[in-house]
# Entry
Amino acid sequence: MPGGEGGTDDRPVEFWPTSAIRAALDNDDLEVWQRIVAAIKRDPFGRTARQVEEVLATEQPYGVSAALTEVLEKARQHLEANERAEVARHVRQLLERSGLGTPEFASRIGVSVEEFTDFLDGAATPSASMMIRMRRLSDRFARIRAQRAANSG
# Structure
C-alpha cells in the first residue's frame, strides 16, 4: 500500500483505492483492519463499505471475511434502526404540530390507528408519499390553528 512506514497508507481509509483495501485484507495487521472497521461504522453504505463488499465478493475468503461481513451487517442494521427512530420523531412532530388527535390524524391520512401507531413507534416506516401526505395535513391544520389564534387575539 502506498504511504507511510511499513507500506501502510496513512491517509484516512475512505481515500484508499480498492487495491489498498484488498491488500489490507491480505495483511494480518489488526490495526489496519480496525481502521477499515471504523470507516464502515462511520458510513455503512459509504465508499469503504462498498469496496469491502466488492473485495469480499470477488476474492477467495479471507480469514477476516466473516468478521467484516458481520461488521457490515451490524453497522447497517444500527443505521437503519436510527433512521427509523428519526422518522418516528418526525411523524410525532407532524402530529403534534397539527393539533389533531392520533385517531383523527390517522383517518385523515387514510391509515388505521394501528398502522399510524406503528409509524409513531418506529415499528413501521411510512412511504415517501405518506410522509408528504402527513406534512401537508400537518401544515394545513397548523395554519388553521394559527389563523384561529390570530382572530381570537
Remarks:
- The chain is about 70% helix and 0% strand.
- The longest helix spans residues 65-98.
- The CA atoms of residues 34 and 40 lie 10 Å apart.
- Helices lie at 18-26, 30-42, 47-58, 65-98, 102-109, 113-121, 128-152.
